[in-house]
User: Fold this.
Amino acid sequence: MPFPSDSDPDLEIEGLLAAEFERQTTGIQLIASENFTSPAVIRAMGSVLTNKYSEGYPGKRYYGGNAVIDGVEAVAIERARSLFGAEHANVQPHSGANANMCVYQALLQPGDTVLGLSLDHGGHLTHGSPVNASGLQYHFVAYKVSGGDERIDMDQVRDLALEHRPKLIVAGTTSYPRRLEPEAFRSVADEVGALLMFDAAHIAGLIVGGAHPDPVPHADVVTFTTHKTLRGPRGGAIVCREEHAKAIDKAVFPGWQGGPLEHVIAAKAIAFREAADPAFSKYAHQIVANASALAKALADEGFRLVSGGTDNHMMVVDLRAFDDDLTGKVAQLTLDEAGITLNKNTVPDDPRSPFVTSGLRIGTPSVTTQGMAEGEMSTVAGLIARALRGRDDAGQLAAIREEVRTLVTAFPAYPNGDPHLATAHA
Ligand code: DSN
Assistant:
């Protein structure tokens, strides 16, 4: 039976793919959890590996025809182990959220006590939010950033650990602009006999690039996503000590997932190899330098930075000092019109709801992939400030949209065009 056509039969999806390519490559992409992944990664995701079922692990599958797939997954596992210097790797988690839930299933019993950073202070849904399965199944106790310097207070983490005697401590963030010290978390975990999970979803690329402290020697388990600073395909992974390997593998499959996405696992393998290249270390350090430059330029424009600045790939901007009436929601929509993509974000103890917020989260992984450096960061800060000041002036926003287009055209993420249309060796 032939396929009806080589493309989406009524071309509706082709049109939308082209529109999204245009959006991504003519605007400024500042979402801290996003990046531009390489053409090789995109091609692997569009490969025939998507046709294959391969429940199980290399050498132990529930379906025939998996010799090649075994090769792909074995390469991905070996590259992940080598990149992170880890004893064991599982590359099957479909996402960072899944990876976290798999670790909980592997290491905990329902109802066990866990310490995690509060979502509204920069943690993640899977760090015990009451509306998430993590918070429903386990007894999470939240630590917060301190009221003064808005940084994680290790004395508070220690006090809570001594009081609640958690079985697991989760170190990791999604919206926290400061460096995490894995050794300090390990020392608290050791004092109370807890296991330590480090969620490196956001900073995996900074870690393997040597721009942030390495949690692998200190944590029992490290989870991460592959699509943020690590610049690979959308997905998750876990590295851990050998003693937890069996339990982790069992929790991923058959515990949480069925058939692995081997086309994505092939793409992960490519991304792990790319991240092992010496050039990636330069990239990781430039992400941090760009975030620092952007934070300083925004402060010069009158914005308040949560915690006073950043030492990773992101910053959280408190809009109230710039304009008390401006919410994160309105700022995000205004900047969308100007071609600048970022997300509204709560600030610690935000009086506004998570749908409105008083802040923005801004990250530099994508613009750094494009080759922008510190000089461009002050231009970007100026564009943001002008757009927000002129938010009621459609003409001004349209003019800024054109400036944005001109800026990013000089820094193409994909100089050879849309990678899913390009041929492999173009
Ligand atoms: N949605 C991710 C982020 O933006 O940080 C976390 O899951």
In short: The CA atoms of residues 80 and 216 lie 12 Å apart. Residues 33, 96, 124, 174 surround D-serine (CB under 6 Å). The chain has a mean pLDDT of 97.
